[in-house]
Write a structure and sequence with these properties.
The protein has 16 helices and 13 strands. It has 437 residues and is of the alpha/beta class. Strand 5, helix 10 and strand 6 form a beta-alpha-beta unit. Helix 7 packs parallel to helix 8 and helix 14 runs parallel beside helix 16.
Length: 437
Amino acid sequence: MSRALPRRSFLSSMVFPAALAPVAFSSPGLARAIAAAAEAGPAPAGSDPLTADEAFWRTIQQAFAVDRSLVNLNNGGISPSPRPVMDALFRHWSYENELPPYTMWQVLEPQREGVRQQLARFAGASPDEIALTRNASEALQTVQLGLPHAAGDEVLTTTQDYPRMITTWKQRARRDGIVLRQFPLPVPAGDPARVVALFEQNITPKTKAILVSHVIFLTGQVMPVREIVALGRKRGIPVIVDGAHSFAHLDFTLQDLDCDYFGTSLHKWLTAPHGTGMLFVRKNLVPGLWPLMAADETQDADIRKFEEIGTHPAAPFLAIAEALAFHQAIGQPRKLQRLVHLRDLWVTPLSEHPRIRLHTALGPGLAGGIALFQVEGLESAALVKRLWDVHRIFTVAIKHDDFEGIRVTPNVYTTPAEIARFVDAVLGEAGSARREA
């Protein structure tokens, strides 16, 4: 669902504290980029004129203080933050360290309510449904460990979901006697109806929860979450959505998904400070979900009970507001189109190689900026090592029981030249491997 705004409303719609605005957008280049985005207006569906406008994206790239002698193509693991976010983070860190019992607890900590409101508005939820966490794992484990399952209850997910979430279910199986049911997905998974059918086929009368990744972390494949949510709701089964790779990447709201629970990291695609995440719990479900750490019974119906984690810094959470302002200045539809453009810059030439296989279906709505490829006859982990040791390009090797490959995840600061450098390196290594064979 697009959240594009009328041209005149573009700049005025960005929500951030007025006192912080001059700091956030003090870079002349970044200010020009924002002005260019406002002048261009909302990104039209499928054909934003700024998608390949390198003059525009160069100003966005310059907002990131990264080492350009290296290439990071594992932004899906963790992404750097732009300078406005780092400036805000350091400013808050410095202030909270002046007299922490006062500056951190009494001044800065209450300001997280403003961050909660901004995130809720962007996500399409109520502030009473949004908890600030340290990452997607904490958000999702809050739900997985907080649901009142009993021995014999079944939970359903795939063999391609995130290992930490699978480990969480397995711990509940050891501790509480629940049963974890998993099933494989096709690779690539280009038929959403088939995916929904597989979930339906594996539901039993004992199924008490479904965990589904909005974007499969291994391949970047987008799952038909809304349809899976509807499938669960029809049977009275709550659906937990792992949104670690979808939030601030794909163009949607939580209202679009209509899910019960949603957890995400904010240090990936939103480029917020490292160690920040978000949990959504539908308001009527908050009272029935136990928090990870104990909270007073007066908080039973309060989303903030999920934030009772003891002493923690305020700075990273407050700087989320700057990351959100930066993201909204670009615009979600425009950002997604750029990420897809960067993906296609490497997918297209590599796909022409006879030994390179793509494990991600790329049809409309099936993938965003993430994709997985494999060079046949060459171990993926060995190629990843070569890319780093020889070419100084950082990627991640994927090794699954059913497939393997190299996952590539650029971000808005990635340049076409860096993508070309990656393509040349892969083709060169593939050619060298053939000659050696």
